[in-house]
Write a structure and sequence with these properties.
Shape: globular
Structural class: alpha/beta
Order of helices and strands: EEHHHHHEHHEHEHHEH
Largest sheet: 6 strands, mixed
Distance between the termini: 40 Å
Radius of gyration: 19 Å
Length: 260
């Protein structure tokens, strides 16, 4: 059992969204055990079922009339969305829990404009798709945190099972000589649900920074607590994307992969 574990989830997509974001938190085994227990208690207190899904919760919170018409609308989210102050109190409670127990928030942002710009000469999605790039950069940030705090053993990195193109992420890591990533079901881990919440928040904040109108009003009270967590954030640039191409043996000028 690892001394520290990092849980990660993704938000956004490479087709309809301007960003792909992979986010999560680093905490110790004891800290995660406290999160698991308290996360469950908070859901019970507010009459909500597990697992937590940020996209659905925020959709119900911001546009209940539209959300409850959906075939798969969650009845618990419909119920709490009818009391907006209660919904916001729930989000604040989740944010306070995570802020009080985690050691570091980790995020990698892949702007699709940058990604597509480098990929205009080659099909990067076949080798380093946006999700794989973001997840790889998150692991890189975790290793930096290990070195900074002289962590005696590698931090276990767990990703939500089912995110798009995970197979290519696995291949990317194995090709680079790393261990195969660990994938777990979100419903079984509060850490993955917390990462889901944070990834949604990072996309919303990134859109706000880019002066894109968010689809829903942001829960600023909850976000203020998340903002207090120490952070390691990285946004993909043309330079570091080209560096990944070199690591993979791809000439970014021609798209030719060495050895092929």
């Amino acid at each position: 059992m690892a001394m520290f574990t990092a849980y990660f989830d993704a938000s956004g997509d490479a087709i309809s969204q301007p960003f792909v974001v992979v986010s999560g938190y680093i905490a110790s085994y004891i800290q995660w055990k406290f999160v698991e227990d308290t996360w469950r208690q908070l859901h019970t207190k507010f009459g909500l079922s597990l697992p937590f899904h940020a996209v659905e919760f925020m959709a119900a919170r911001s546009n209940l009339a539209n959300y409850e018409k959906q075939r798969n609308a969650r009845s618990d989210y419909v119920a709490i969305a009818k009391n907006p102050q209660e919904a916001d109190r729930f989000l604040v409670n989740l944010a306070q829990l995570v802020a009080a127990t985690t050691n570091c928030a980790v995020t990698a942002v892949v702007p699709m404009e940058v990604y597509n710009g480098v990929g205009s000469l080659l099909d990067l999605r076949e080798i380093v798709p946006p999700y794989a790039l973001g997840a790889r950069l998150c692991i890189e940030l975790v290793r930096k945190w290990e070195q900074l705090f002289d962590v005696p053993e590698p931090i276990e990195c767990i990703f939500e099972a089912g995110d798009f193109e995970q197979g290519k992420f696995t291949k990317l890591m194995i090709d680079e000589g790393s261990q195969s990533p660990i994938y777990k079901d979100k419903k079984d881990f509060a850490g993955l649900q917390a990462a889901d919440h944070y990834a949604w928040e990072r996309v919303a904040m990134r859109k706000q920074m880019a002066r894109m109108a968010p689809a829903e009003p942001l829960p600023t009270a909850a976000f203020s607590f998340l903002g207090a967590i120490p952070k390691l954030h990285l946004e993909t640039t043309t330079t570091n994307l080209i560096n990944v191409c070199h690591i993979k043996g791809i000439d970014p000028r021609t798209g030719v992969q060495h050895g092929n």
